[in-house]
Structure formats: structure tokens, C-alpha cells
Amino acid sequence: MTLTLYGEPRPPADDRPTVQVTAVSWPGSDAPPAQPAQPAPPAAGPDAGPPRSRRLRLLIAGGVTVGLLAVAAGVGAYTYAGDVPRGTMVLGTEVGGRSRTDAADQLRAELDRRSGALSAPLTVRVGENTAEIDPATVGLAVDVDATVAAASEAQAPPVSRLVGTRSVEPVVTVDAERLDAALRKVLGNQGRKMTMPAISWKGTTPKATHPKPSLTLDPQRSAEAVRAGWLAGEPITVPLVEKHPATTAEEVDRMVAELARPAVAKAVTLRTDKGSVSIPPAAIAKSLRFTADKAGKLTPKVDVKRLRSALGGKLDSIEVEPRNARMAVTAGKPKVVDDGRPGQRLDTGDLDRNLLAVLPKADDRTVTADLKAVQPEVTAEKIGELGIKERVSRFTTHFTGGLSSPRSKNIVQIAKDVDGTVVLPGETFSLNGHTGERGYAQGYHDAPVIMNGKLVPGVGGGTSQFTTTLFNATYYAGLEDVEHKPHSYWFSRYPAVIESTIFWPHLDFKFRNNTEYGVLIDTSYTSSSITVSIWSTKIYDSVKTEYGPRRDITKPKVVYLEPGPSCIPANGIDGFAQDAFRIIKKDGKVVKREKFSWRYDAEPRFICGQAPSA
Fold first, then answer.
1. Which helix (H) or strand (E) holds 581?
2. Measuring CA to CA, how many Å separate 211 from each of 199, 216, 257, 295, 304?
3. Most buried one in 49, 83, 529, 559, CB count within 10 A?
4. What is the dotted CATH code of the domain comprising 249-382?
């Protein structure tokens, strides 16, 4: 509004201008715009004071100005009363002009009023699929305290807009991990896995696999979409995104052209102080690997373990294997009979990097490596600290045919291979790992083995009897059984259930030294028996076996086989199931009771000859 003030009455001929004061224009006021004030008349003279009417006008104008300032101050105080500026709305409810605590209570009350809508299932669309998700399951919620803090820190309406309002979006939280899991169920099989870049080998020919992007959900973008759309109450479309592998198809092709193909173009010479070894292209192809990480970044690397395996015995010309110290039982006591010796092996620390540097080259394909000393795992000094002092178990099985039969020779050969072995505390012993392949070159002979349910000649037949003997020796020593497999058929020379077969390389026997002492395996044999003794420090009072009754007994059937050298007759054995319990006592109490179970098939009665005519 505009206010015009006049001084004392004056004649109509007095044309001096009036003084106009413009007051505050309030929002919504329809008052006409204020007119600018006219300049004051000149003073009457140097000694003349202002006329009375002018003084009055000045006093009035000053009073209005002071009043306006007071109004403005009051308006500011009104606007900024409380922690949250007045006029602040969240979800349509006024939280302004309040302390943070009161504003939070007001907002929580509003959320309680909306609880039905907020807990209603949320409709989401992922690709072509639509489903409903429970907001609570994925952690959707309004963070009241964070919302009030945002409302408090946001800029307040200007003083000139005293009755204005502004809205503050609520802070919505969601568990991104649980949301991603729920959305992936909606996604189903619409997505596409990333095709990782790869370079593989077919012989010495590299084969490139070009990468392809995945089509999938991005947890962060999914969470953003759901947070933004939840309170609107409308279906939400969650975006699918393409994720490209870090290595492109062009980079894969360049790797093939600049590294893989040149790598196998010719041999690499490995030079040491004790001579040189040629690494042929086939060994390079087996050891040069191209591995992609989760992001699809393809990285070449020389796998030194694969390289050693591919070189086979070539390294024997420059390396010397360390030999462990050995023990033997002499005059009834275990003693060190061989102090062992250190060895020399190729230092592979920098070999992979050095090889990778020369593989792209056409010439100068030579790398140099050092040989480093390797101490044996078991030294004489270490043996002396292992507490191997007494026999804790012994087991014997019997065989026929004397020492001249191929089967007996195999039993003796494997016994010699294992004799004197020391198993350290915590170490797992593998019979296959210890002996390696048992073939003709290792001193083994053809003897009957079970193959496809029947006895046939096979190299190493009879080693299962030694395996069973070793298994029982460790069993009665209370050592931990790791791996064993009983025979398909039961043979009376073995204890039922507690026995084990072996076959290179698939069937193994393993036990773990689960004591704090060392274990010495001592073997001995006669013309009709094999014995394994375990020497260590005695821990248990006794280890015994209790058998359950045989059950589900089946009778053998008669099978006629083609006569010939490969046909081995058999009388047939009943099949049955049985349980055996290992009972371990210490200090007069049972400290462990272990159950072993097995079911034997009925071994057929094999007859080498034609079946009788009906």
C-alpha cells in the first residue's frame, strides 16, 4: 500500500511537493506500485531553520523507516524460528519452524499415517518381466534423521517471501545387496553372461576368443531407480546395462599376433651354470597362459609349474633332488641310517618374467637362471626332535606263492619303496604320491587285478595287499584316515571293511599324522607275509575294532568266460554289508569311536570255458 502524509494547512497556491513513503509490499498485495519521491524545495536561506511542516514530515518518514526495520527483524526471527526454516515441507507435511527432534516426530507421524502405502508391494519391471517386491525385504525405508538434517541445512526462503513454502525430498535407504538378489530373480534368464577374452592352445596353434559384453543389472543403478520411484507409488523400471570386458577384441588379436604366435615360433634356450636346456615350442604352449580377471582384463603369464611338467626329465641334467634323512629299526630301536643331502633346483623366482620378455622376439631367445640350494624336508637333526622312540602299532597280512610269484614281487617292491618313510606332524601321506606310477620301469610286474568286476592281468597286482596292511597299521596307531576305498569283493586274507585297494592314479590311500610326534613307517616281509610297523610316541592305551553283524548277504552267480591267458578263474564269494567301529581309549576312557561301513558285491564264480548246453 502507499501512504501519503501532509503537513499543516497551506494555501492552495502553495505548490511545494508532498513527501511520499512506500511501505512493505506483502505477498498477494494488490496495491498499486509506489511512486518515486519528489525532490525537496531549496532552503529559505542560510539562517533559516526548516519550516515546521517539513520537520514533521521528516520525523514521520524516519519513524516509518525504523518501523520497517523492526518489521524486517521480526520477520527474520519468525522465518528462522527453530532448527528447520518455516515453510519447509516433507511428504506434504509441515516440518518447518521446529527443532530437529520435533520435526523428526512430525515426519514419523506422517510416515505412520502412510504405513499402509509404504508397506505395499512394489511393482518393478526388469526387461520384459514384472514382479512385486516387499519393501521391507529389500530394506526400503525413509531415513527420518537424515531427512530432517537435509531440511535443516537447506537454504531457507528469503525474508521477502514470508509465507512461501519449499519441499524437501525424503532420504530413502535400501539394502543394495538384498535388492540386487531380488531383482535377479525377476531378471531370470533375460540377462547375458560376459564372454571373457581368451587365448587357448591347440597344440602350438593359438586360438582367440573375442569378448562380448554382458547384459545384466548394475546394483548401484538399480538402487538409485528404486529409491527415486518408491514413494511415487508407480511401477518402477529397473535398467539393464551392458558391461564390456576390459580387454577388447582388437587387443586380443594383437596379443595373438605380437606374443602368442612368436612365442612358439622356435625354442628358447635356458642357460645355467651347470649347462643349458632347450625349451621346445610345445612346452612353451603348455606353460604360456592367458588369464582374464573378473573385469575381463586378459593378462599373459608363464606358469612355471606347467613348464617344469612339460619339460619332463630335461631338468634332471642340471638339477639334483634333495634326499631326506632316513631311519631304520636296528636291534629293536629306530636310528638315523642316512643323513640325507641338500639338492639344487632351478630358481624360478624371475623365470616367468624373463621368459615372457623373450617370447615375442624372433632372435636372441635365451634366458639365464640360477640354481639354488634346496634342503631336504627331513634332516637328521629334525628327526632327533620328533619323538620317534617306540613301536605304537604293527599289522601283518599273509600271501601264497612264495617270493618268486609276480604278485609277491610287487608286494615286496612297494614295501621297499615305503620303508623308512618319516611323516612329519600334521603332514598327510599319500601312497600314490610317495611311490609315483608303479609300472614296469619301477620294478613292478603283471599280476591279477580287479578290472570291471573280474580278475585280469595288470601291472602292479598285489599292491592292494600292501595298502591294506599299511592302512591297518595306521588305523591301529590311531592316525587319521583321510582316504581309502575297500575292494568290490571281500577276500578272506583281509579284515572285512578295514581294508583298502589302490590303483594309479585314481584310487589312493592317504592318512594324516594328527599327532605332535613324527611317524616312522617300517616294513618287513617273509616268503609268505608282509608286515608294517608304525613307530612314534605312544598316545593311546589301546585301539580296537568292534564289528556289527553281516547283513544283506547275497550269493555269487556263475559266469563262463572265454578261455585264454586273460581268463582267471575264481570260486566266488558271498556279498554282504557290515559296520566296523574303531574304539580308541586313553587314560582308561573311550576318547573316540569311529564307524566304518562297506557293502561288498558277491564275486561271481568265474569259469574259463563254455557254458554247458541246456
1. strand 575-586
2. 11, 16, 17, 11, 27
3. 83
4. 3.10.20
Query: How is residue 96 written as a grid cell?
Result: 518447518
Task: Quote the cell numbers at residue 509.
Answer: 590311500
User: Shortest CA distance to 42 belongs to which of 32, 50, 31?
Assistant: 50
The 3-class secondary structure across 261-293, one letter per residue, is: HHHCCCCEEEEECCEEEEECHHHHHHHEEEEEC
Domain ranges of the chain: 2-40+50-79, 249-382, 386-608
Q: Do strands 366-368 and 268-272 pair parallel, antiparallel, or not at all (unpaired)?
A: parallel
For 390, list phi and psi in degrees, rounded to 5: -150, 155
Rg (CA), the chain: 47
C-alpha 344/C-alpha 325 separation (Å) is 16
Higher-scoring residue by pLDDT: 100, 573: 100
The pLDDT value given to residue 489? 86
Identify which of 453, 486, 470, 405 has the alpha carbon closest to the alpha carbon of residue 559: 453
Among the residue ranges 90-99, 329-338, 541-550, 557-566, the one predicted with the least confidence is 557-566
Burial of 197 (0-12, 13-18, 19+ CB in 10 A): buried
Give 132's contacts (C-beta < 8 A, 6+ positions apart).
121, 122, 123, 124
With a cut of 90, say whether residue 391 has pLDDT above it: yes
Give percent of the chain above pLDDT 70: 83
* Bond preceding residue 50 cis, omega within 30 of 0: no
- Asked if residue 9 has pLDDT above 80, the reply is no
If residue 107 lies in a helix (H) or strand (E), which one and from where to where?
helix 100-113
Phi, psi dihedrals of residue 303, rounded to the nearest 5°: -85, 105
Higher pLDDT, 212 or 58: 212
The letter for the amino acid at 244 is H
With cell 512506500, the residue in question is 22
Cα(577)–Cα(572) distance, integer angstroms: 17
Q: What is the pLDDT of residue 451?
A: 61
Q: What is the mean pLDDT of the chain?
A: 85
Its pTM stands at 0.57
Residue appearing with cell numbers 630358481 = 347
Q: Which three cell numbers stand for residue 441?
A: 620301469
Q: Which residue has the cell 561288498?
A: 600
- Is 327 or 591 the better-scoring residue by pLDDT? 591
Instruction: Return the minimum-mean-pLDDT range out of 286-290, 380-384, 428-432.
Output: 380-384
Kindly report whether the peptide bond that precedes residue 505 is cis, defined as omega within 30 degrees of 0. yes
Which cell numbers hold the place of 463?
Answer: 599292491
Q: For the purposes of burial, counting CB atoms within 10 Å of the CB of 402, is it exposed (0-12), middle (13-18) or buried (19 or more)?
A: exposed
Which pLDDT value is given to residue 11? 43
How far is 180 from 137, CA to CA, in rounded Å?
11
Average pLDDT over residues 472-488: 96
**Taking the CA of residue 64 as centre, how many other CA atoms within 13 Å lie in the half-sphere pointing to its CB?**
15
Query: How many C-beta neighbours within 10 Å does residue 157 have?
Result: 17
- The secondary structure of residue 183, as a DSSP letter, is H
The answer to whether residue 313 scores a pLDDT higher than 80 is yes
Give the pLDDT of residue 522. 96
